[in-house]
Amino acid sequence: MNVKTFTGLTILLSLLAIPPAIAGAEPRELLLAAYSVPKEAYEKRIIPAFVRQWKQKTGETIQVRSSFAASGAQARAVVGGLDADIAALSLESDLQQLVKAGLVTHDWKQGPHRGIVTTSIVALGVRKGNPKAIHGWEDLTKPGVEVLYPSPKTSGGAMWDVIAIYGAGRHHGKQQGLAGPASDQHAADLVRRVQRNVKVMDKSGRESVTTFERGVGDVIVTYENELLPRIKQGRPYELVFPSETVVVENPVAVIDRNADRHHVRDLADAFVSFLNEEEAQQAFVEFGFRPTNEAVAKDAASVFVHPPQVFTIADLGGWDRAFAALFSSQGAWTKAVEETR
């Protein structure tokens, strides 16, 4: 090999060793596919903070793009080809769609807090002064009360809303001495009576809040975090916390197949880890979400209301059982909608 050839080979190898950002290539990027509700938390605080932290740690400039939609619709989009590297969805059953499709191949529940990055509770939003005197679930069944919540066919938030109603109905039934199928029937009856008063079912929780803000409806069934920031901004709403409600658990996971194919697995893993760190968890709190980080949760305990009878999806037998009881072809909510039509 002559000197000229050796010199050229040396230059080529040196160029190959230069990181893409320095060599002039496009910066690496992540795509986050998330449900619609935490849009502001991610876009205004969390994504910029992560990009800044990654630059400080590694010197690499990266981009994080985001896509927001109703949780169920988002899950179907990813299965259908949306090339996202991370999924932050409203409920476990939506994330399990990605597992069944072979997109998420690791055990995402082995992460911190079993893969749950934020929690919330289902609450009731009413107009300023609570003119319809809404205090609990039974008040949603009164004549003349117009109720809003999104459609469980597209929205994970809507599933949580209906599950809160159903779980409260079971609790009421047990207080009356009912058990087993009788308690379940009592719960199904409450779902049916509330559904009679549902005026609009939008595609997502965010769209449902927008409809409420336009003056439609007397009460909205929603995550507390949808209204907390708006109330702080002076919007004419109030939050009512029923005595019985469900803990909303929001999962996040790296989409293995896409992150590996895009060669951003290190970024995706780091982003999910960052979501559990204090900076990101405090940002979630600012936007009304309940943190899973223990230190942040302790500091934020006084920020949130703690209803006396709070239950989890596990208390209802898990997602498979809840889905069958409510959203299957013979489920209580499905039958209630058919009856209303």
UniProtKB/TrEMBL annotation:
UniProt entry tagged with the keyword Transport: yes
Organism of derivation: Nitrospira defluvii
Cleaved signal peptide residues: 1-23
Keyword terms of this UniProt record: Periplasm, Signal, Transport
Source organism, top-level taxon: Bacteria
Cited InterPro entries: Thiosulph/SO4-bd (IPR005669)
Keyword hit for Nucleotidyltransferase: no
Protein's name in the database: Sulfate ABC transporter, periplasmic binding protein
A molecular-function term among this protein's GO annotations: molecular carrier activity
Major subcellular location class: periplasm
Family in the record: Belongs to the prokaryotic sulfate-binding protein family.
Subcellular location: Periplasm
One GO BP: sulfate transmembrane transport
CC terms in the record's Gene Ontology section: periplasmic space
